[in-house]
Design a protein that fits this description.
alpha/beta, Aldehyde Dehydrogenase, Chain A, domain 1, Aldehyde Dehydrogenase, Chain A, domain 2, seven-stranded mixed beta sheet, five-stranded parallel beta sheet, 18 helices, 19% strand
Length: 553
């Protein structure tokens, strides 16, 4: 019998499946604030303020204490207390909730997941304020990235998983001819069986955008999910978990299918939980050290990691030099470079950049790039809405130390925020380094740090970029060139390195943006990530197919 939530969301689910197959633009979640009502921003702020200085209510098993010490990068103390649960209790509760969730089947699970996403969408501005004051994203970026764009990625994961599960029929009649004898007949039954408890280890910069794919891919395929929040960014995922638990309970399922796990830097728990043999799926976003450890040690689980890399740009030639600089200025400034897709190393030939106005020397290009960033940020009120704030003091320290890596083309400096005087706002640092100084530009330097590397020619630029990507990993790679042969060489290099390539971006699309239902985020083919968000491989290994068969007389 059809479930009301599947019937409610079936059309949207089918549209999502069509979108991932066509790869064109599609989104069911509005990214314009007006669609959420005239008072949505203020209503979201009030909802966020209600969490401050209070205990976040989550009726989870195994509560041993309460904790949480989030402080906004804009200088606001949150003082929110969350239940600290024994991981073993969450694992046991998740396992106990599985049988009914398995029996529900793919359609019902998908309907419940889409209802969770719909309710999260309705609370997008509540989420925006929560993300702003934990990650440091400016409000409008937090609204889009943590709201509709994150929901896109969650729905995308559900669509992929539902499509894969629906490829398996519930039953089949097997008939094998036997010549003159009656055919052999068997009735076969196929059941989707989840792997087991899933652990999602979230990051501190994009907790929902990076977290929802793993959460919803595991949940819709029948796996209970433990969401382990970063100690400094708990609230957005606590809200997400609370919404999921409410929908599950209202739908007649055990809310312990989704739970929140918190810890702190002094007593981390992620490693111990990941090594629990009952944890069969692990999704991780964060630094490479722990990601590599998970891949090497958690052999009992399927491990999906998005770690870190050195995103590169090769500048050869362009037909609109000013538009290129304007595009790069925004790219390098957006969220102060705290994105896994932000370029770090820009290779430019000493032969210069060919433009319709003539050849721009590599030295001049560096100065022009620095000037474009400064011009873009010359209005502090506008600048802070693009830069946001530095999420972690560690990133701030890394930025300060980076000034000694090369010749400073543009120094990073504080920018006063007109609303939040204690906000950690810093402008981008741009350096020139020699190609021989590989230590400077082949290590990931997370934050608003850009290194311009001068090479002998574009061929060397492409070769160095490819080697950096193959060895260190990258999520994005960009080229500026008007030469078809150079474009072809860059495409071939990108294929060998397993990285997404953007060519000649000069308009309102930027290399550090990734669109749900169209762009494959990461490839899993280089060290920056071992999985793609989202493709069939990301979902198909989260379940097994178990069959039973019997003779039919």
């Amino acid at each position: 019998m059809p479930h009301p939530l599947f019937e409610k969301h079936q059309t949207q689910l089918q549209q999502a499946v069509a979108a991932i197959e066509s790869r064109g633009y599609w989104s069911p979640y509005a990214e314009g604030p007006r669609a959420y009502g005239e008072t949505a921003i203020e209503d979201g702020r009030k909802a966020f303020e209600a969490y401050r200085g209070a205990q976040f209510d989550l009726d989870q098993p195994g509560v041993v204490a309460h904790g949480g010490a989030e402080v906004s990068p804009f200088g606001l103390s949150l003082d929110i207390s969350y239940p600290r649960c024994a991981p073993e209790a969450l694992v046991a509760a998740g396992k106990a909730a599985m049988p009914a969730w398995i029996k529900a089947g793919a359609d019902i699970r998908a309907g419940v997941c889409l209802e969770i996403l719909a309710r999260l969408n309705a609370r997008s501005f509540e989420m925006a304020h929560a993300v702003m004051h934990t990650t440091g994203q400016a409000l409008m970026m937090a609204f889009q990235a943590a709201g509709p764009h994150a929901q896109d990625r969650g729905l995308e994961a559900v669509a992929y998983a539902w499509r894969e599960m629906k490829h398996v029929p519930d039953t089949a009649l097997w008939e094998k001819p036997q010549g003159k004898n009656p055919p052999l007949k068997m009735e076969k039954k196929f059941t989707i069986v989840p792997r087991g408890v899933a652990l999602v280890i979230a990051c501190s910069t994009f907790p929902t955008w990076n977290g929802y794919p793993g959460i919803f891919a595991s949940l819709v395929t029948g796996n209970p999910v433990i969401v382990k929040a970063h100690p400094t960014v708990i609230l957005p995922l606590a809200i997400s978990v609370a919404v999921a638990r409410a929908v599950l309970s209202e739908s007649g399922f055990d809310p312990n299918l989704v739970s929140l796990l918190i810890d702190d830097a002094a007593a981390p728990v992620a490693k111990d939980v990941a090594m629990n043999p009952a944890v069969r799926l692990i999704d991780y976003t964060g630094g490479p050290d722990f990601g590599n450890w998970l891949e090497a040690n958690c052999r009992h689980a399927m491990v999906y990691t998005e770690k870190a890399g050195v995103n590169c740009i090769v500048v050869d030639s362009i037909d609109d030099y000013k538009a290129m600089l304007k595009n790069l200025a925004f790219t390098l400034s957006l969220y102060s470079g705290q994105m896994c897709t932000t370029p770090q190393t820009i290779f430019v030939s000493r032969e210069g950049v060919r433009t319709p106005e003539g050849v721009i020397s590599a030295e001049q290009f560096g100065r022009d790039l620095a000037g474009a960033v400064s011009k873009f940020l010359d209005d502090p009120a506008r600048a802070v809405e693009v830069l946001g704030a530095i999420q972690s003091p560690a990133t701030l320290a890394r930025l300060e130390a980076a000034h000694g890596l090369g010749e400073v083309l543009r120094a990073s400096s504080p920018i006063a925020h007109p609303q939040w005087p204690e906000a950690r706002v810093r402008s981008p640092l741009i350096l020139r380094v020699a190609a021989a100084d590989e230590r400077a530009y082949t290590e990931e330097r997370f934050g608003p740090i850009t290194l311009v590397v001068e090479t002998a020619n574009t061929a060397e630029s492409l070769a160095r970029a490819e080697r950096v990507i193959r060895e260190q990993g990258a999520i994005t790679f960009a080229l500026y060139s008007t030469d078809p042969a150079t474009v072809e060489q860059a495409e071939e290099a990108a294929l060998r390195a397993g990285v997404a390539l953007s060519v000649n971006l000069t308009g309102a699309v930027f290399v550090n943006q990734s669109a749900g239902f169209s762009d494959f985020h990461a490839t899993g083919a280089n060290p920056a990530a071992n999985a793609c968000l989202t493709d069939s491989a990301f979902v198909a290994s989260r379940f097994f197919v178990v069959q039973s068969r019997r003779h039919v007389q």
